[in-house]
Design a protein that fits this description.
The protein is an all-alpha fold. It has helices spanning about 30-40, 55-60, 65-120.
């Protein structure tokens, strides 16, 4: 029969956390708030609405905006779309121009090689 003694116990290795913390300050309830919610019979799983700045910048709540703000967003969005379309057209035009220049360069090199082949030998 084997005895499991404290001397044989091996403590598991705990790896340190090297990642940055992703917690948002002031998003959890204090102990007092938890007690008050428990005493009032409310659920304890946190009812605070988290505040994320990243999502709010790009996705405004349209239900809370008035008509002028919605129209402003519409105009700004159309301007951005036109700007990006123009950027895309510029990039495509530059790409076509570079391809055309490469074709011209290749054709010129080919002509120079043909000209050297057809060139009569020099007597010297």
């Amino acid at each position: 029969m084997k005895w499991n003694t404290y001397a044989k116990y091996h403590k598991p290795q705990i790896l340190p956390n090297t990642q940055p913390s992703l917690t948002i300050p002031d998003q959890s309830m204090t102990v007092d708030e938890l007690y008050k919610r428990y005493a009032a019979g409310l659920p304890l799983e946190g009812r605070r609405v988290p505040f994320y700045t990243e999502d709010n910048e790009f996705l405004p709540n349209l239900k809370k905006l008035d008509l002028a703000e919605i129209e402003h967003l519409k105009i700004e969005s159309q301007k951005k779309i036109e700007h990006y379309k123009q950027q895309l057209l510029d990039v495509q035009a530059k790409k076509r121009l570079a391809e055309e220049e490469a074709r011209i360069r290749e054709a010129a090199e080919k002509l120079l090689k043909e000209k050297e082949v057809l060139k009569p030998p020099q007597n010297g």
